[in-house]
Specification:
It is built from 7 helices and 3 strands, in the order βααβαβαααα. It is mainly alpha-helical.
Length: 232
């Protein structure tokens, strides 16, 4: 199935877990701006069918891929969203290097700033998760949401991840937060203890693991709105 662009705003993310989150956030929160989120479902959707999918090393591939559909001429802004990983600024530099290698795009000067719009390039912005100051990823925010209503769980997870010869708390921040999140899911989500992050927003039975309207997601909403407002 080919990539199609029907909106003036495009959001590019690292993978299916991120796409599922942003799709839910944009759908469930009130009066959100409209974005296409054309994360490719298969390699056949990319320009040569051989490039790997997903990850923060492949935004250049996606930037080239979205230029192909006729709808690209109507795009005013492209927002690239990536995990902060171990350092938001280094992640930004990595993404900027990819933007430079994708023909027809201008490079933003800083995180959450827009590049100039030209005859061949829409505005381009880069945003990191959990934010532009701290390391981590989408699982960092998910862990915060779980602990908002289950603060008793923090000590349990800390004890588990430092028990015996387990040293997960000493891992790089993004990996440590992934370990926290998946340990929490395994401990509290009886419906599906092995639930993957990409499946968090798919309903199973009558309950979801998280609330998309939780306060910890507010800053992400605000940055999406700010991008849309700046693009105009």
């Amino acid at each position: 199935m080919a990539i199609t662009l029907t909106e003036e705003l495009v959001l590019l993310c690292e993978g299916q877990a991120d796409k599922a989150f942003f799709t839910t956030l944009l759908r469930e929160r009130s009066a959100m701006p409209k974005f296409n989120i054309p994360f490719p479902e298969s390699r056949a959707e990319l320009e040569d069918g051989r490039e790997p999918l997903g990850g923060r090393d492949n935004f250049g591939v996606m930037l080239r891929a979205i230029r192909v559909p006729l709808g690209f001429r109507n795009v005013k802004g492209v927002l690239i969203v990536a995990d902060s990983a171990d350092n938001p600024e280094k992640t930004f530099e990595l993404i900027c290097d990819q933007i430079k290698m994708a023909p027809g795009y201008e490079v933003p000067g800083a995180l959450c700033e827009l590049s100039e719009r030209t005859d061949t390039s829409p505005h381009v912005g880069v945003m990191t998760i959990p934010d532009e100051s701290n390391p981590g990823g989408i699982e960092t925010v998910y862990a915060r949401e779980i602990l908002e209503t289950r603060d008793w769980l923090a000590g349990c997870i800390k004890s588990f991840l430092s028990c015996g010869e387990i040293h997960a708390l000493d891992w790089p921040p993004e990996k440590a937060d992934k370990a926290r999140f998946h340990s929490m899911v395994a401990a509290i989500y009886e419906s599906d203890p092995s639930r993957a992050a990409s499946m968090i927003w798919k309903r199973r039975g009558a309950t979801l693991l998280m609330d998309i309207n939780a306060q910890c997601f507010d800053s992400i909403e605000q940055r999406l709105r700010s991008f849309a407002s700046q693009v105009g």
